[in-house]
## 1
Amino acid sequence: MRDKTMHVKVRDSYSDKIFDGINIVVMLLLLIIFVWPLWFVVIASVSNPNEVWNGNVILLPKDFTLMAYEELMKYKMIWTGYRNTIFYTVVGTFVNLVMTVCAAYPLSRKDFMPRNFFMFLFMLTMYFGGGLIPTYLVVSKVGLVNTPWAMIIPGACSIYNVIITRTYFINSIPSTLQDAAELDGANSFQYLMRVVLPLSKPIIAVIALYYAVSHWNDFYTALIYINKQEYMPLQSFLRDILMSNKMTLNDIQGLDATTTEARMRLAQTLKYSVIIVSTVPVLCIYPFIQKYFVKGVMIGSVKG
Amino acid sequence: MNTLGISVYSILAGFPIPIIFALMLNYVKNKYLKKTVQMVSYAPYFISTVVMCGMITIFMSTDSGIFNIIRGFLGMDPVDALSKPGWFKSIYVWTGVWQGMGWSSIIYISALSGVDMQLHEAAIVDGATKLQRIIHVDLPSIKPTIIMLLILQMGSLMGVGFEKVFLLQNTLNKSAASVISTYVYEVGLINSDYGYSTAVGLFNSVINVILIVTANQLSKRLADESLF
């Protein structure tokens, strides 16, 4: 009897060991799969274009040079795009936050009678939209097409975030606070500004981050509503450079490489540097805000 | 047809992988390894679609892309994968998995951390291996989460994201890379055929709603879990 249990135990821990071993190997592999492509872009952007072209750049930069970045500096459109994107991100996120709080707060109040009706209307838009063309027609009739506001107003409020915020308001702010505020003579607006919002900093931070990242990465809105170069966000220029090779030789002044071949290679390296320049702001703040994002997913999942 | 194909493929590949990833991560003993893998796996989610597609074209390029270098090592001929219609779905789906799996796994990881430790202890006393514990303890515990997310995914079955398909599309792979959303865009905004394009879009929305309601009913009946 005892022998048998011993035997079982040994066999089990043996299988567990195999499991652990495989597990660690898989995790390390995944680590490489996640990190390497990003790392490659970084090292390729600072390597000699010829080395990259020949496939010699694998783990470390070869023949370190900032040539690609210097060329990039001369490309004016990138900076226009940068400026626009920062504007859209800052103003857009602010508008988003105001709208979201204004929608979520009444919906969280139990004494707001038609709240279920409005909730239903809001939810409906999540699953059932008019589609691209009707939306476009509305936006163009309102006169927003080809203005910076087209980037901000049509997507001013995301229902998903309204729901998350509302859930937070309901679950985390005790309703006795409202009674207390009323006793002290505060009206609803004062209660919202002085009591609810200061208590809701975590959720405000989470949805602000959601909105900011989506503005930064937004490409679709600009594709549909914006035709004028001066209003285009960074992502639109990125697309031109990365996907359609539009950064032609004429656009880059002072390019003195002799052969077309060399120019093509440089253009390739430029792609890496442009990816870095556009993604670095997000990836730089990423480690600090990571925990907030995770928190946001958790709050969202509570809604059920 | 392409829309349906791409989304079914996406769900088949993209849905179980985050679950498996979360389960495996849950059993990593080394805390640093666990934290690092977790943090790094979220990172691709924040890369914009445009940059993502740029990276895909770079890595898939015939002359210096890593994809073809690896193929070369394995003794295969280089292919220009992006111009082959047959490759499009796989590229789309697997890059999507790369980008989204870490992020989608967050919700499972949080569900797994809520699994009752007593169940695990009981299983260990009974001599269950880790694999058995995953199958008999962890999976049943996170079943509600899995079903809920599956219903949500069903709702987006007909809604293959516009941006990525649009950006990866070219004249050569178009036969495989034209989905409803890009079609609506082309017919409606490029050719200005508003009426027809709106009808196509609306039809798509209706199917979506039907799908999500059906999935919800099904899971209510089969598993006693539902979203609404």
## 2
Amino acid sequence: MTLARRIIPCLDTDGARVVKGVNFVGLHDAGDPAELAARYNLDGADELVVLDIAASRDRRPTFLETIRRVASELSIPLTAGGGIRSLEDARAVILAGADKVTVNTAAVERPDLISELSREFGAQAVVLAIDAKRADSRWDVMIRGGRESANLDALIWAKQAVASGAGEILLTSVDRDGTQIGFDIPLTAAISQAVNVPVIASGGAKLPEHFAQVFRDGFADAALAASIFHNNVQSIRELKQFLASQKIEVRFPC
Amino acid sequence: MIVTLIDYGAGNATSVERALRRLGATVQLSSSPETLQNAEALILPGVGHYAVLVRALDHQSLRPALVDALHRGVPFLGICLGLQILFKSSEEAPELHGLNLLPGRVSALPSSVKLPHMGWNQLQGKRPSRLLENILPGAFFYFAHSFAVIDANGESVALCRHGSDFAAVIEHKNIYAVQFHPEKSGEAGAQLLQNFLSLAAT
């Protein structure tokens, strides 16, 4: 009886459609979010994340409708984010059917956002997304979709955010994102050991062995990936079967 | 049978409603004491802070109607905070009072483990359970909480463990409650909700 490590597919959307591209360049259509959500729900996903990577104000109603459509396909938890800057933004996303919200740039610019959300919805509903990039002897927090340095040490930021009420950290390695050479193990291990909340590792996954490594050596509580699931490069069910065979506790059969 | 889902404004009533409708149940969301008094079956969902639920029950004058319905034998299912509220008090908000229908209290899970207890975990059955009928013993359920009933007693039919043992499923006469979220727990969760609908209808 141990808490299972989670496998979380992520839908990056432009508000309405799932998109794929490297560093927001050359985005192309990768499908309908509700259709993918239904597929992952059946295939054994433990949770789903849906992000609005455009996060423009005028597309907001479209994204909320996407959350509603996705949520109605799921019997697993849903996290939504992208462009959440206030309590009201978060409330709209939760009322649309999300169980948790992720905050990133807005929380760096105004750390009180984390405690406001945590008081209102509970720490279990507040996921701090950190985009981290190696810089000499530390990892820098990156904002605005990974393009700009916040000049902040990721380890210090993670601890501060947890003290303010973040209940989970979604940790993306900017260095590994899109490379498919595996998760950033030292980064994940450093953050996971620095805080007492669950850490979701993201960025660089392709092979089943990458997931085993990040759970075994990176101490991740969950692992997130996008395109390898969308393109059927990796089935979630087969991935979990592999992890179970490696004696890693997962929800399997699922 | 109409299932009355208590919607106190801060919970996850919508996702519970969606899960129940998928099972073909007739559901009404309500926040009025009159509806609670006449309910055939009651579900109290909950997520977030204990104080939010307690204050909502009191501000909306739902406490007496709820306690009355439970005493009259109306089948009740509490989910997450809906389980915790059945006890006397919670360390999360020690100044507030729960419904005090069951002996025990809500405590913080030990900080020797990562908190919140977030994700899928298995149960350890203690005695026969109607809620867990037709669910395989190794089934996983989705948890998201930092507080739990640790001094679990005779009413616990199944425990879970995260840092310490705590009550995961409670059955006491017409009162049923789960610490996890069946509405987010895939097929096992759907079966549990179906089991509640079936026992409430008989």
